[in-house]
């Protein structure tokens, strides 16, 4: 097994994207990115995500494991913070990419719907 220092950069990046590969984790990160100082209490994250506490805890553990978030315990409360401001930028870039892709898809759909019925390939539904 390779140590983290020996792991190729592409493997490290792949693990980062695996950590992000769940809608609940993306929602958690977006909530943190929108929060003051990119910090929020677990109670806030629970209320906003609607997840069960055990599920939220599992998602937060995954994000911590991959160093996407950090946590601080103070008495009975735990707060989470984005580990790096670049996480907010990554989320914004992903949103822009997806919106651009959807815009392109909608434009292609609009153009396809304008084609006369005779131009559709056989077997295609209008």
Describe the structure.
By secondary structure, the protein is mostly helical. It has a single domain, classed as Arc Repressor Mutant, subunit A. It contains five helices and three strands. It has a three-stranded antiparallel beta sheet. The longest helix has 29 residues, at 86-114.
List the helices and strands and how they pair.
Elements: H1 9-19, H2 23-34, E1 39-41, H3 42-49, H4 53-65, E2 69-74, E3 77-82, H5 86-114
Antiparallel strand pairs: 1-3, 2-3
InterPro entries: ArsR-like_HTH (IPR011991), HTH_ArsR_DNA-bd_dom (IPR001845), Metal_resp_trans_reg (IPR051011), WH-like_DNA-bd_sf (IPR036388), WH_DNA-bd_sf (IPR036390)
Keywords: DNA-binding, Transcription, Transcription regulation
Protein name: Metalloregulator ArsR/SmtB family transcription factor
Would you tell me which CATH topology applies? Arc Repressor Mutant, subunit A
> What is the total number of structural domains?
1
The helix/strand class is mainly alpha
Number of beta strands: 3
Helix content: 55-70%
Topology order in helix (H) and strand (E) letters? HHEHHEEH
- Helix tally equals 5
**Global morphology:** extended
Main β sheet profile: 3 strands, antiparallel
Low-confidence residue ranges = none
Instruction: Compute the CA-based radius of gyration.
Output: 20 Å
CATH architecture: Orthogonal Bundle
> For the largest beta sheet, what order do the strands appear in spatially?
1-3-2
Mean pLDDT: 87
Task: Quickly name the level 1 CATH class.
Answer: Mainly Alpha
Beta content: 5-15%
InterPro entries: ArsR-like_HTH, HTH_ArsR_DNA-bd_dom, Metal_resp_trans_reg, WH-like_DNA-bd_sf, WH_DNA-bd_sf
Organism: Pseudarthrobacter humi
Protein name: Metalloregulator ArsR/SmtB family transcription factor
Domain HTH arsR-type: 5-102
């Amino acid at each position: 097994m390779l140590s983290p220092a020996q792991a190729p950069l592409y493997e490290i990046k792949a693990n980062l994207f695996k950590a992000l590969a769940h809608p609940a984790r993306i929602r958690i990160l977006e909530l943190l990115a929108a929060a003051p100082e990119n910090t929020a209490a677990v109670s806030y994250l629970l209320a906003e995500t609607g997840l069960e506490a055990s599920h939220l805890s599992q998602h937060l553990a995954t994000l911590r494991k991959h160093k996407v978030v950090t946590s601080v315990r103070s008495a009975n409360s735990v707060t989470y913070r984005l580990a790096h401001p670049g996480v907010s930028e990554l989320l914004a870039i992903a949103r822009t990419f997806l919106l651009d892709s959807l815009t392109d898809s909608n434009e292609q759909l609009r153009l396809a719907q304008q084609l006369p019925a005779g131009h559709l390939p056989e077997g295609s539904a209008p």
